[in-house]
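Reopening: ABC transporter permease still failing for me.
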Amino acid sequence: MSKIPLIIQREYFSRVKKKSFLLTTFLVPLFFIGMYVGVFYLTKKSFEDKHAIVHIVDEEGSVAALLKSNKNLTYTNSNVELQKQIEQLKNQEDNTNLLIIPKDFYETRQVELLSAGKPNITTQNEVKDHLKEIIRNVEYKRLGLDGENIKKINDSISIAAKELSEDGDAKESHTEVAMGIAMALSVLVYLSLFLYGAQVMRGIIEEKTSRIVEVVISSVKPFQLMMGKIIGIGLVGLTQFLLWLVLTTALTSAATTLIFEQQDIAAQAMAQNKGAMPAAGGLDFLNALQSVNFTELLLCFFAFFLGGYFLYSALFAAVGSAVDSETEATQFTMPITMPLLLTYILSFGVLVNDPNGSIATWLSFIPFTSPIAMLVRVPFGVPTWQIIVSLLLLVAGFLLTTWVAGRIYRTGILMYGKKASFKELIKWFNYKS
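Support: Ran it again with your exact input. Result attached.
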């Protein structure tokens, strides 16, 4: 066992010192910050540039007078002949439109909106809303209803969704925020387990094909080599996650403080919600984030990521020892990653919709699926005993798979030129030391 730390040290520093590790570690946070800045900038610009001019050709005769300009749209009545107006439209700037209202508008309820350039969806929707209001008012009159009084009816409903804690207290329940975090964790863990598990497998295949492993095996036991490699690459993954967390937090705070004013942020948050959100909408979102137990979330993330990584990396290591190339490894990696893939797919529907249902609960106890299933459930609130039981089962699963993988690894690592099969793997597993 004393040689395992040396192997861990070798695996860790040989990867951390690589240029690819440094580039990935520093470029990923910059990519997210760039995306964050870009979303705000483009959103702001799109709302600044969305003002449109709509020339109206009203063949019906009474609709144009009812269309009122606002800060986003300017309606102008056109007295030019229709065909000539269309010809002129080709040479005009984007966001210039021609609205053609036919004579039978109230019967067919169809209009044409010609645009210079690509038709703007926001402009189309706004014109449609204005026309719908005109038709609605006409229908009110026909039915003898007072449209103004109907508009005054307040039918908005506010639901204060709360959940009862174990001690009986009611607290705010922000389901949308929990769903967003759950799906983000699902994607992150799924990709990470594949990324770092594949690194373990690839490293073993490279050493096996270059025959370096024969030299190493003369000094250490195969099991020590496998465990050293798994733990070393796992520590590389943890280092990368911690650096991403620190750099992303620091850069996001700096970008928020230096580039955007708080008023801009609140305005963009409201703009992204089509202006329907009340003035306190941005604050509600921040309050929702503050209600999330990030300490529990981070602890669970690192615990389940490590457990899942060790479990799957042991299997990837066994596969790497059994084959001579990555192409041959495909037939073995597909079966062992199917539970993970199934949970990942279910996390976007079944798990987030019913995080405390029987399917989600059972999946969070099975070691092969719990790294994703439990992390998807945690933002919704999971009893502590379930988290502990799930972790214990995951550790037990890791020990079992490591034992199985180690028995395959000790034989497979020294096998060359022989195409492995599942039957062959069972035979290697049954070999006595």
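Strands lie at 52-58, 73-77, 96-101, 112-115, 162-164, 170-172. If you still see a failure, please send the error message rather than a screenshot.
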